[in-house]
């Protein structure tokens, strides 16, 4: 309240309805007083009455008329009531300094202006909490100013120098070197095979010639799951079930084996194909397998007679096979440069089921297929050496949304949901892994290090790490998609709450 008392004192001094008690006497009052004093002093007993009467008369002229009326000192003898409020302090200051010499007026005026500015600053700080001259909304130079403490709002800050957590632009660092390199001796360097898969229980399965090895990414343990009896036979494809308990293995002797990983026990061996099984994909209890014969078989692993359906459309080897996340569509790619989209068919469905879409735009073998996790009607496909294009398809309309020439053979595609990106594996001529922003397909980063063509990609359960296997007999883990700890914990809770889909035992 001190500032209000100070203002009251100023206004009481400057009121016009009462005399200024502390100010000097006006000039006309001083002249009247001096003339009256001289008249009284001139009266003496020896003087005549005429002199006394003439001297006591009211003068015919206003006192001081016989002199120049321009005041010789600043301040004058009148107060002008139309002065601006900001000049009241200056006026009061000049009234108190009226009798100072004329040559000092300029110095006094400077002091008065400084006095006024300091008072305004003090009032502004007391009333607003900040100096209003320093809080301009339009500030053309320098850093933005801090918002006053009383006007700060965590929900909406109009201007501030200190950035809030929501406004911080987080920079993401993508390492150009792999987080880990695993040795993969005797890996079969075959473009059409799918020899790598990562389970939801964080176990990486890799096929090395005629053996399947498991690497526990959490503990770091390595386990030999199985080995084929004949040396001339080899593993062609691997695929985990959704809950990560069982592993399907496609072999060169035209069979599909099911393994219980926890007990390291083979549950069954299913024979239906006439050529090697190079691609596998799960849809709950239905396992789909693609063969070099061009046929796709559906197996119901709950039934003794597992083979329930056959899809015919490809004229050459089926090297790419993927079920959509919602289980409605099966996408297949082959060495005949074709991409097919098949509908889900129940056990009693017609054996002459037609494909929903058949696309012929690719000019090379289509092994790379990936469904978008956050847009379930979007399918990405990649062509081989003669094509080198990534194509994005809308399954609902059947149209190609976008296409990109990568200038390199495409062997695998994976969507990375943490940053909504698409990852591609390349053979000749780049032999690397490339990260693309989706849907713009602008290049985010290139992961180099493999000395031969990259054959396959797979994503970790937390979607933070991509594993690539190449003809140089190495598996490289690229930790390129780490997310905030809060988002990571929420996603882990969601995964744990998902119950097992397979309720009946595999016979």
From TrEMBL:
Residues 31-51 have a biased composition (Polar residues). Residues 182-478 form the CDC20/Fizzy WD40 domain. Pfam families: WD40_CDC20-Fz. Keywords: Repeat, WD repeat. The keyword Repeat applies. SUPFAM superfamilies: Quinoprotein alcohol dehydrogenase-like. GO terms for cellular component: anaphase-promoting complex. Residues 52-63 have a biased composition (Low complexity). It comes from the Eukaryota. SMART domains: WD40. WD repeats lie at residues 228-269, 311-342, 384-403, 447-479. Residues 28-82 are annotated as: Disordered. InterPro entries: Cdc20/Fizzy, Quinoprotein_ADH-like_sf, WD40/YVTN_repeat-like_dom_sf, WD40_CDC20-Fz, WD40_rpt. GO terms for molecular function: anaphase-promoting complex binding; ubiquitin ligase activator activity. GO terms for biological process: anaphase-promoting complex-dependent catabolic process; positive regulation of anaphase-promoting complex-dependent catabolic process. Belongs to the WD repeat CDC20/Fizzy family. This is CDC20/Fizzy WD40 domain-containing protein. It comes from Anabas testudineus. The gene is CDC20.
């Amino acid at each position: 309240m001190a500032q209000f008392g100070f203002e009251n004192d100023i206004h009481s001094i400057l009121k016009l309805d009462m005399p200024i008690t502390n100010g000097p006497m006006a000039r006309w009052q001083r002249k009247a007083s001096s003339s009256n004093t001289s008249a009284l002093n001139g009266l003496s007993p020896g003087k005549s009455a005429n002199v006394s009467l003439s001297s006591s008369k009211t003068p015919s002229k206003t006192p001081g008329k016989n002199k120049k009326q321009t005041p010789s000192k600043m301040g004058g003898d009148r107060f002008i009531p139309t002065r601006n409020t900001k000049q009241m302090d200056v006026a009061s200051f000049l009234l108190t300094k009226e009798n100072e010499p004329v040559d000092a007026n300029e110095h006094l005026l400077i002091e008065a202006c400084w006095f006024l500015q300091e008072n305004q600053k003090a009032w502004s700080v007391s009333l607003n909490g900040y100096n209003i001259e320093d809080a301009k909304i339009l500030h053309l130079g320098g850093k933005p100013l801090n918002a006053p403490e009383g006007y700060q709002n965590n929900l909406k800050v109009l201007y501030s120098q200190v950035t809030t957590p929501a406004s911080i632009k987080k920079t993401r660092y993508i390492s150009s070197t792999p987080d880990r390199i695993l040795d993969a001796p005797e890996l079969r360097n075959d473009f059409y095979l799918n020899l790598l898969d990562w389970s939801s229980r964080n176990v990486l399965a890799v096929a090395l010639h005629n053996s399947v090895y498991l690497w526990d990414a959490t503990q770091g343990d390595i386990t030999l799951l199985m080995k084929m009896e004949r040396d001339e036979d080899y593993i062609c494809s691997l695929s985990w079930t959704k809950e990560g308990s069982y592993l399907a293995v496609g072999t060169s002797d035209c069979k599909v084996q099911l393994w219980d990983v926890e007990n390291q026990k083979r549950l069954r061996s299913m024979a239906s194909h006439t050529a090697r099984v190079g691609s596998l994909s799960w849809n709950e209890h239905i396992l789909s397998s693609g063969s070099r014969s061009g046929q796709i078989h559906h197996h119901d692993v709950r039934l003794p007679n597992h083979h329930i359906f056959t899809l015919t459309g490809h004229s050459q080897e089926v090297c790419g096979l993927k079920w959509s996340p919602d289980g409605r569509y099966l996408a297949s790619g082959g060495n005949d440069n074709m991409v097919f989209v098949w509908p889900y068919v129940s056990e009693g469905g017609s054996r002459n089921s037609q494909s929903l879409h058949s696309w012929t735009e690719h000019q090379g073998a289509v092994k790379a297929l990936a469904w978008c996790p956050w847009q379930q009607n979007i399918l990405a496909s990649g062509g081989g050496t003669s094509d080198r294009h990534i194509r994005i398809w809308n399954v609902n309309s059947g149209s190609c949304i976008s296409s990109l020439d990568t200038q390199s053979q495409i062997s695998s595609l994976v969507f990375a949901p943490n940053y909504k990106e698409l990852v591609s594996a390349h053979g000749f001529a780049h032999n690397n892994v490339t990260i693309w922003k989706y849907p713009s397909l602008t290049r985010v980063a290139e992961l180099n290090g493999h000395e031969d063509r990259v054959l396959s990609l797979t994503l970790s359960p937390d979607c933070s790490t991509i594993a690539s296997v190449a003809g140089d007999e190495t598996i490289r883990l690229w930790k390129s998609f780490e997310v905030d700890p809060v988002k990571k914990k929420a996603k882990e809770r969601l995964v744990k709450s998902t119950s097992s889909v397979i309720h009946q035992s595999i016979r």
